[in-house]
Amino acid sequence: MRINRSVMRSDEKATFELRGLYERYGYCRFKTGKFEEYELYVRNKDFIAADSIITFSDMSGKLMALKPDLTLSIVKNYHYVPGFVEKVYYSENIYRASRATHAYREILQTGLECMGDIGLYDLCEVTVLAARSLAAISSDYLLEISHLGLIEALLEGTELRVREQIVKRISEKNLHEIHQLCREYGIDEETDRNLEILVSTYGNYRRVLDKLKKLHLPPKAAEALKELEEICSALAANRMARNINIDFSIVNDMSYYSGILYKGFIQGIPSSILSGGQYDRLMERMGRKTGAIGFALYLDALDRLDTEEKAFDYDVILLYDESSEVSAVLRAARELREGGETVLTEKAAPPKLTCRKLMKIENGEVTTLEYHG
What is the CATH classification number for the domain harbouring 147? Predict the structure, then answer.
């Protein structure tokens, strides 16, 4: 059956394209139910970044929740197999306050997870898929990448609360307070200077990497930088270099995330529609001592791309009367639809609906009564 994509909403088109993309890369579909035990989200509330969750009690009195996130359910159901990497994708509704309207909505979330003994290849593949996911929606996209491991390596040895304070200032690009914290907690001048360069250097990945490679970095930070360079090289090999920026202000909770982080944007939508990264520590917190990386696209944001009103409600309104043979009406409407047009069949033209062509079938013949270009 041929699918007429011209009548799809932007989120429906995106879902259709993304499912095909992930399956070509060998990802299997993961299906979940609508509910999960509320306790799962209470334990990991910072990970899902949801201020409130819709809850209810089931027949046994257990507190349940409408799912505000899918990653936690996937991790909960994951079983480690040594040497194996499990690759799944999902396209399901979640229930949370929309970032666009700030009201509860049923939001279509599509994304993927790669879990197990992941290595550099898997990090590169998922990053390429993040970029390809954005490209499937719009050719005018931007994928911003960070590496939390590099930041952590620079701050190794400092207290956790101090690291968290500095990371927060990095997310705000607040150099003044970063310098102040370094002085207050006795962090050496070289680390302070490296953090300043990390925060102030943004943009084209080649330019950023060239600048960072000139720094004197501790071994773990140099290793993280090398990994970031390899991942960016994989994107360049897939002809995506012009759509990639490095921005170290992209940081997430260090108790869940550990390495590569993403944010993705497309032209016409002011907020990010893609987010994700490497969440090894979430796996560990949930008793799965292995690695994981993934991302999610929040397709409710694509509503903004559908705000332009269509010129017409239908391509064709086809009129018929009682004397018309049903088979002739069905045949005429089918032939128009097979030509890619949307067709409404009626006995009289509806007063509030518009069409590009008003047509009529009479004595088996179809004639055009009005044509609006």
Answer: 3.30.930.10
